[in-house]
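Appendix C: a fully annotated inverse folding record. The material below is reproduced so that readers can follow the format used throughout the book. The structure is listed first as tokens, followed by the designed sequence.
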């Protein structure tokens, strides 16, 4: 060592604090995902679209509640409301899903995530939970507005409130099914590319391009084909499940006796998307 060499003590110390492990990392990823979905912690520009969608859906709920208060009739029930808003939520998912996963692919931070103790299953689980929560809240919040409007204007006392609560819980369960379908497809498509524009376009295409197939199958002369036609699109698949499971859903779909088939396909679709998503990130983690 030369006489001019100097060793500087810059204060590095060994970390002695608590090591929180995988559970804490999962929780942080989940919270960060929900916040990112609505633009919290990001620029004002990033908040515009998600809150615009939330505002529109909430405004529709307020208008429906007002109409009910004046006329005593609800133009759209909880199930029909979710179906009507699902077309708008497609674009919400197309923006949010790439934000949750495509950004990580593009920026190359996944090797840092998958260094111990985080595993691919932790990452996927947190992203799925965050996305599903964001989409569910987008429907469940306005449905709560519908409930409050009905509960405070009912003339049947507590029996009317309890009946309204049952409808709300059915609507929330239905919204969760929508959230899981949107989340599975949206995140799977978004995980295939680091380019957010391509991911957004792919998500919209999956939902919108399958809908005309339903129209083609529905005009076939076979009654069985007409009853099964709604299986061809995620948009009508979820409505078919509601038509079978929820009394008074009134989705307008004629699924005949094939309700169980719709439920099986919905569960299979969600499970397949999640398994493919997990396989995708296990492959990324092994690179």
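Designed amino acids, in order:
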């Amino acid at each position: 060592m030369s006489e001019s060499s100097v060793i500087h003590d810059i204060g590095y110390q060994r970390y002695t604090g608590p090591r929180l492990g995988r559970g804490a990392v999962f929780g942080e990823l989940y919270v960060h995902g929900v916040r990112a979905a609505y633009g919290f912690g990001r620029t004002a520009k990033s908040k515009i679209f998600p809150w615009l969608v939330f505002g529109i859906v909430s405004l529709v709920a307020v208008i429906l509640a007002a109409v009910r208060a004046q006329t005593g009739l609800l133009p759209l029930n909880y199930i029909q409301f979710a179906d009507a808003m699902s077309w708008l939520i497609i674009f919400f998912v197309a923006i949010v899903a790439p934000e949750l996963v495509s950004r990580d692919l593009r920026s190359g931070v996944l090797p840092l995530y998958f260094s111990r103790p985080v595993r691919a299953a932790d990452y996927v689980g947190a992203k799925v939970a965050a996305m599903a929560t964001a989409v569910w809240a987008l429907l469940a919040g306005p449905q709560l507005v519908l409930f409050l409007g009905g509960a405070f204007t009912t003339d049947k006392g507590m029996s009317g409130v309890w009946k309204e609560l049952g409808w709300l819980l059915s609507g929330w369960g239905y919204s969760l099914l929508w959230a899981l379908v949107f989340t599975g497809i949206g995140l799977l498509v978004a995980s295939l590319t680091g380019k957010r524009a391509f991911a957004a376009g792919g998500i919209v295409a999956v939902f919108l391009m399958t809908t005309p197939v339903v129209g083609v199958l529905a005009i076939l002369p076979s009654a069985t084909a007409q009853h099964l036609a709604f299986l061809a699109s995620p948009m009508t698949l979820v409505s078919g499940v509601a038509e079978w499971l929820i009394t008074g859903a009134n989705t307008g779909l004629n699924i005949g006796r094939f309700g169980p088939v719709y439920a099986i396909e919905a569960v299979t679709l969600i499970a397949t998307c999640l398994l493919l998503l997990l396989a995708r990130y296990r492959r990324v983690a092994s690179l």
